[in-house]
Automatic annotation (TrEMBL):
It is found in: Cytoplasm. Belongs to the TRAFAC class translation factor GTPase superfamily. Classic translation factor GTPase family. IF-2 subfamily. It holds the Pfam family GTP_EFTU. This is Translation initiation factor IF-2. Residues 118-178 have a biased composition (Basic and acidic residues). InterPro entries: DNA-bd_dom_put_sf (IPR009061), EF-G-like_DII (IPR053905), EFTu-like_2 (IPR004161), IF2_assoc_dom_bac (IPR013575), IF2_II (IPR044145), IF2_N (IPR006847), P-loop_NTPase (IPR027417), Small_GTP-bd (IPR005225). Residues 372-520 are annotated as: G-domain. GTP binds at residues 378-385, 424-428, 478-481. Residues 369-536 form the Tr-type G domain. One of the essential components for the initiation of protein synthesis. Protects formylmethionyl-tRNA from spontaneous hydrolysis and promotes its binding to the 30S ribosomal subunits. Also involved in the hydrolysis of GTP during the formation of the 70S ribosomal complex. GO terms for cellular component: cytosol. Its main location: cytoplasm. Keywords: Cytoplasm, GTP-binding, Initiation factor, Nucleotide-binding, Protein biosynthesis.
């Protein structure tokens, strides 16, 4: 139906004289020049509102309360009636109108009291009960009123109908008498209603109610509007005003009290019968909602198929204030669900996990030999990286990407005796736990010991880790190309650690090699293959894959990427998987050569694209049959993780801790939120920081992740009083606002040692000098120019503080540090300047860095010494 009608047309539609309509419009405050002017939907609504008011409508509030309790459906039936006989025989249409009002059945039973015996919730329960009683009374009252009104209307209508029929008949007879000829039935039918109009001004002979065969307009919408409106005249008017569905929806939802969702469903069900048949509206949809220990309001709304706002509103009415993102406990959620007329069932928090387990068990099959997974350990500078590099360079089968191997966290090499996979874990001395994690998925540890240096502290540590994990060792005595190399000494020193070489009568293979020139590397590979044979490593090589995440990051172009090591089955492109609290569908697989294999079998590392987020290194992954299960498991895990994070006691800020430590008041809790540029650093920081806990202080990493510090990080930090640690990453603008307004302690670092040192000092209650980096200015890169003399020069605007020529700088992209260095040049127009202040444009040349891009930020900082005080 057209949204724009002229006044004349509208008058015809609503069966009101044009003049009267113009009058009404004028009264409603809308001036129109003449009957051919267009009336917009908005004007129709305004008029409708006006008419509703003038029809003596009760206050809008009363109407709102009334709204949810009943629905009224109008139905129209057209019958043909033949009047007269012989020559004067004519056919008239008789329209019978019926109206039915459905009153909502008794309210849902009160929620099981057993669920909420707790005194804390008594108040909510009381409010709920009160509101229920109120609603019940109101409902009865309205039902009574409505019944009376319906009867009244029905009586009136019948009177009108009789009157009209009589009138029509009289008119028809008169017509015929005047013309002297029998009118064609069609004409008479057309004439009849028109003639009848003045006699029944309130009546609504719609133009389409004529003879059979005439195309009926869909009437469902009329019924719907009639159902929603309370006032009879106004409702009829609404239908006739031909308001579009959207307009009506806007109107009905704009009324605050209308808990319209279930009702709308009822109404729609009724109207679905269309013009022809009349169907009882289907019952309101009662959903069974599984509620776990806690749920966010948004998730609950989704399960109820409601808008988040509706649920918030419903909760507000129950006296519970919550935002959409807030997590509510089980009992509150149950109350809300039942208040909204649905059923809550207790969700077993392990539902999806159980299904997952059953699922994984099904995937078992024949176990066939698989390649060994090797981790290289050893003391710093003994040549771990060199060995890994050498193997990668010389042994990895080069792929399509021009023979350039990619760092994906692991790679596999092919030897005449089979495939071997190496984990490419970074060998930072401080992060023994990282290595421990590496050992978990490792079959064999290669312990690198420099022949010129011998057994060192981290050599011993590595031995302990391998032992604890029950993983066999192979010793690589490295740097034998050096003149100072003394392999025998190494073997002797290892003896003291109960690592006995085969030639000493023990069972540990030892290989002398040089990672630099490659001597003996093949012997090492042979030794690994031999060890693998002894271990009889087996796995299911087909079917659904499972395994472990070894490295992950958020890639700017590709989204979350994770390198996984397949442990069982075969991971294929297109598979659905759960990966820690993330899930997704494998969009693409990449191997270490940059090529895209279709699948990866046991012990093969492969990079996965297509996850919902960045999983943590060390997370398990499992391929599941469909996305639903993947999503369920991931969401359940996520909810659990969030819960346990919330449960953790709020800690104290670093300064407070320092102050309280001196007073010797029990154990302090230091909450930290760690964000870093790569997952490796996150993991490393997490492990080493928590390890700093002692009797006096418990260090709690409540949240961690890859990427800039976001608004939600800032919120978490604010609520848990956590100190935020940004390692090579920065807070974005919205996060900064929250951090500033809540006094969150935010610290930026670029050296892992500094982080540990600072936390360690706090943990040990030391008062000393703290070196802090202070950001003194930020410039935004607007454009980049190439100059033959200076290389890339960034046209910048200083947006904060001051940029100084002789202070160190960092280049940030997406709140992540991409370069740290110095300024080559700082210019205003063509002048070299020492500093540029906020709000000023300048040209910046960065020393030894030509990759500055528009949109980057250049931050200028200085290191200052701060004396700690109590
Ligand atoms: P990592 O700390 O254990 O990873 O040790 P790196 O692989 O970084 O090696 C430390 C230093 O030892 C580097 O300067 C290497 O060039 C050197 N290096 C490693 N392997 C050998 C080797 O077999 N022979 C010699 N001469 N130098 C080596």
């Amino acid at each position: 139906m057209s949204q724009q009608t002229t006044i004349r047309k509208l008058a015809e539609l609503v069966n009101t004289p044009v003049e009267k309509l113009l009058e009404q419009l004028a009264e409603a405050g809308m001036k129109f020049g003449g009957p051919d002017q267009v009336v917009t939907s908005a004007e129709k609504i305004k008029l409708l509102g006006f008419l509703r008011r003038t029809h003596g409508k009760a206050s809008p509030q009363a109407e709102e309360v009334a709204a949810p309790k009943k629905i009224t459906l109008a139905r129209r039936k057209v019958q043909e009636l033949t009047v007269g006989g012989g020559r004067s025989k004519t056919t008239v249409n008789v329209e019978v109108r019926q109206k039915r009002t459905y009153v909502k059945a008794a309210e849902a039973p009160p929620p099981a009291v057993g669920e909420m015996a707790d005194g804390e919730r008594a108040e909510v329960l009381r409010k709920l009960e009160e509101s229920r009683q109120r609603n019940l009374a109101e409902q009865q009252r309205l039902a009574e009123a409505d019944r009376a009104r319906a009867e009244d209307l029905e009586r009136k209508r019948q009177e009108e109908e009789t009157q009209r029929l009589a009138e029509e008949q009289r008119k028809a007879e008169e017509d015929q008498r005047q013309k002297g000829v029998p009118a064609a039935p069609q004409d008479a039918a057309d004439a009849a209603p028109r003639a009848a109009r003045p006699a029944a001004p309130h009546h609504r002979p719609a133009p389409d109610r004529v003879a059979p065969g005439h195309k009926h307009k869909p009437r469902g919408s009329h019924a719907m509007v009639a159902g929603i409106e309370d006032d009879e005249a106004a409702s009829r008017f609404a239908g006739q005003l031909h308001l579009s569905a959207a307009d009506r929806a806007r109107r009905s939802s704009a009324r605050p009290g209308s808990r319209s969702k279930p009702r709308r469903q009822e109404v729609r069900g009724g109207a679905g019968g269309g013009a022809g048949g009349f169907e009882r509206p289907t019952a309101p949809v009662v959903r069974e909602v599984a509620v776990g220990d806690s749920i966010t309001v948004a998730d609950l709304a989704q399960k109820l198929a409601l808008k988040g706002g509706d649920v918030v509103k419903a909760m507000f009415k129950m006296g519970v204030m919550a935002t959409i993102t807030q997590t509510i406990d089980h009992d509150t959620a149950v109350l809300v669900v039942e208040e909204l007329g649905h059923k809550a069932v207790r969700a077993d928090s392990d539902d999806a996990e159980t299904e997952l387990l059953a699922h994984v068990e099904q995937a078992q099959g024949d176990r066939t030999p698989r390649p060994p997974v090797v981790t290289i350990m050893g003391h710093v500078d003994h040549g771990k990286t060199s060995l890994l590099d050498y193997l990668r360079r010389t042994k990895v089968a080069t792929g399509e990407a021009g023979g350039i191997t990619q760092h994906i966290g692991a790679y596999h090499v092919e030897t005449p005796k089979g495939v071997i996979s190496f984990l490419d874990t970074p060998g930072h001395a401080a992060f023994t736990s990282m290595r421990a994690r590496g050992a978990k998925l490792t079959d064999i540890v290669v312990l690198v010991v420099a022949a010129d240096d011998g057994v060192m502290p981290q050599t011993k540590e590595a031995i302990q880790h391998a032992r604890a994990a029950g993983v066999p060792l192979i010793v690589a005595i490295n740097k034998i190309d050096k003149s100072t190399a003394d392999p025998l000494r190494v073997k002797n020193e290892l003896l003291a650690e109960q690592v006995v070489a085969e030639d000493f009568g023990g069972d540990t293979q030892m290989v002398e090699l040089s990672a630099k020139v490659g001597t003996g590397v093949d012997d090492l590979l042979d030794a690994i293959s031999l060890q693998a044979e002894v271990l009889e490593l087996r796995a299911v090589s087909e079917g659904r894959a499972s395994g472990v995440v070894i490295e992950s990051a958020l890639d700017k172009g590709r989204g979350p990427v994770a390198t996984v090591l397949v442990q069982e089955g075969r991971l294929k492109k297109g598979d659905y998987l759960v990966c820690g609290v993330q899930y997704g569908r494998v969009r693409a697989l990449f191997d270490e050569t940059g090529s895209q294999p279709d699948s990866a079998g046991p012990s093969i590392p492969v990079q996965v694209l297509g996850l919902s987020g960045v999983p943590d290194a060390g997370d398990d992954f499992v391929v599941v049959k469909d996305e639903r299960l993947a999503k369920d498991v991931a969401q359940q895990r996520d909810a659990k993780r969030r819960e346990s994070r919330l449960v953790q006691s709020a800690g104290s800020r670093m300064e407070d801790i320092m102050a309280q430590m001196g007073k010797g008041e029990g154990q302090q809790v230091l909450n930290l939120l760690v964000k870093a540029d790569v997952q490796g650093s996150v993991e490393a920081l997490k492990q080493s920081l928590t390890a700093l806990s002692n009797d006096q202080i418990r260090i709690n990493v409540i949240s961690s992740g890859v990427g800039g510090i976001t608004e939600s990080d800032a919120n978490v930090a604010a609520t848990t009083k956590a100190t935020v640690i940004g390692f090579n990453v920065r807070a974005d603008a919205s996060a900064r606002r929250i951090i500033e307004s809540n006094g969150v302690d935010l610290r930026y670092f670029s050296i892992i040692y500094d982080v540990i040192d600072q936390v360690k000092q706090v943990a040990s209650g030391l008062l000393g000098v703290e070196i802090r980096e202070e950001i003194i200015g930020i410039a935004e890169v607007r454009d980049v120019f190439r100059s033959s003399k200076f290389g890339a020069v960034a046209g910048c605007m200083v947006v904060e503080g001051v940029v100084k020529r002789n202070k160190p700088i960092r280049v940030l992209r997406d709140n992540t540090v991409v370069f740290e260095g110095e300024l080559e040049s700082l210019r205003r127009f063509k002048e070299n300047v020492e500093e540029v202040r906020n709000g000023t444009e300048c040209g910046i040349g960065v020393k030894e860095y030509n990759d500055v891009k528009p949109g980057d930020q250049i931050e200028c900082f200085e290191r200052i010494e701060v004396q700690r005080t109590l």
